[in-house]
Write a structure and sequence with these properties.
single chain, Purple Acid Phosphatase, chain A, domain 2, six-stranded mixed sheet, globular, alpha/beta, 9 helices
């Protein structure tokens, strides 16, 4: 018999109408199968945190602890908001109100098992060099084609001669650029969250024989799905950062890693570590069961 059953799901997007019925269905299914620990791996909701509370409420009949991490959508805030304040203050307060556990604050330990998690982030290390998109477009989270159409971003194209033919056909915007409000660059935020994860992994590794990691963003390039369009090829840059994966592999206690964000299921074996992108979409919600 397993000592502990952990159930993980991600990307419920309960704020989106077409995701509501699938989320309610999978919540009933997860409660029915039961387990010891539930982990929601980000993007459960979005700007309105009342919806995140409702998501946690869908699992009120879950018998064990309910753990969660933020996704990038939970860091979307109103025009006068502050995404880091939300990450570090509003979400911990919500967890306390709901009787849940917020992994961005500290690891969860039960016996000789620890669960470590966080939002993760991206530093463009996953961007496709084959596209030939200059770094400045990733930093502004807008593709060359759309920048040429939006006068607010003409400064990214006017006077430059470094755009390869065909890039004007790439019309996409990464919405974190409009809705996440940060006081630092993506690279700086990645470094901040990387050091936080390092501290949590060190803490957990000192107290547990086995560590499971749950990050919203993708920590291994091998988990990034193959591009099916120019738009997704541009979006690869925002899937995550290899730095998180490199850090995770430093800790021999880690055997399983789960992430969300990419909306496509994929499992890879990286030495001793089994890494899973859970793969929920807006209309099909998936979950994983880990028996330890």
């Amino acid at each position: 018999m397993p000592r502990m059953r952990i159930v993980l799901t991600s990307d419920l997007h309960y704020d989106v109408r077409r995701s509501q019925a699938p989320t309610e269905h999978i919540a009933r299914e997860i409660v029915r199968i039961g387990g010891d620990v539930l982990v929601l791996v980000g993007d459960s909701a979005s700007t309105d945190l009342a919806i995140l509370e409702r998501v946690l409420g869908l699992f009120d009949d879950w018998k064990g602890p309910r753990l969660f991490v933020a996704g990038n959508h939970e860091l979307w805030v109103p025009p006068d908001g502050d995404s880091l304040h939300r990450l570090n203050h509003e979400l911990p307060a919500l967890a306390r109100r709901c009787g849940a556990v917020y992994l961005e604050e500290s690891p969860f330990l039960a016996g000789d098992v620890a669960i470590v998690g966080g939002v993760g982030w991206y530093d463009y290390t996953f961007r496709s060099s084959a596209l030939g998109v200059p770094l400045r477009f990733y930093q502004h989270k807008i593709s060359p084609g759309l920048a040429r159409l939006d006068e607010r971003y003409h400064h990214l194209v006017d006077g430059y001669h470094d755009l390869a033919p065909g890039l004007d056909d790439m019309i996409v915007r990464w919405m974190d650029g409009q809705r996440a409000r940060l006081d630092r660059s993506d690279v700086e935020l990645t470094r901040l969250l990387l050091e936080r994860l390092r501290a949590h992994l060190s803490d957990a590794a000192g107290r547990a024989e086995r560590v499971l990691v749950a990050l919203h963003h993708v920590p291994f390039h091998a988990l990034v799905p193959r591009s099916v369009s120019l738009s997704f090829a541009f979006a690869e840059a925002f899937m995550g950062s290899e730095l998180f994966g490199e850090l995770i592999l430093e800790f021999p206690q880690v055997r399983q890693v789960f992430c969300g964000h990419a909306h496509r299921r994929k499992i890879v074996q990286l030495g001793r570590v089994t890494a899973t992108c859970i793969g929920s979409t807006y209309t099909e919600k998936l979950y994983d069961v880990v028996d330890l």
